[in-house]
Amino acid sequence: MDPTDQSPEEVYSVWALPPEPARGRLRRVMAALRAAYGGPAFEPHLTVVGAIRLRRSSAVEALRAAAAGLRPYTARVAGDRRGGFFRRVYLLMEPTAEVMAASDHCCGHFGYQRPTPYRPHVSLIYRDWTKEEEAEARKKVVELDQDIRDLQFEISELALYTTGPGGVESWELVETCHLT
Fold this sequence. Notes:
This protein has 180 residues and is of the alpha+beta class. The chain is built from four helices and eight strands, in the order βαβαββαβαβββ. The chain has helices at 22-37, 56-68, 97-110, 131-144; strands at residues 10-16, 46-54, 73-83, 88-93, 121-126, 152-155, 157-162, 172-178. The strands form two sheets. Strands 2-1-7-8 form a four-stranded antiparallel beta sheet, with helices on one face. Strand 3 and strand 4 (88-93) form a beta hairpin. The protein starts with 9 loop residues before the first strand and ends with a strand.
């Protein structure tokens, strides 16, 4: 931690960013869902560390230290699911040993204690749903990308985002780190 950092504490999250072409595929599906149902735009990501309150210098330092101790790893879709805290449509990712260990490793560097068990996923849209809309949106995902259930990609980039109480529209990229 930088002892001269007088910045206010903010809420940060760590995301694993899918590389191209997976990122482009996910962006296209997400844009089509937003066009059909509304909702805010955000980058495709797999949350690695959930919301934690820190000063900026501490968050950046933790990200860099965590990334330095990780190698690239593979993430694979396990299926499409609904629900969760934000009432969203998302792709559930396989909780492989690599995926779980990467999150545990990063959480350790951030001093993050999960309030619930880790459930790796890639959210496709955030909004409130009726049951009918949600079922329709889940079908639309497969219509938009018939092979999305077979999606897998190598995670080689972690990103630190502010994810504070201002909502999705206020989320900002702070820093990225490449895994080697």
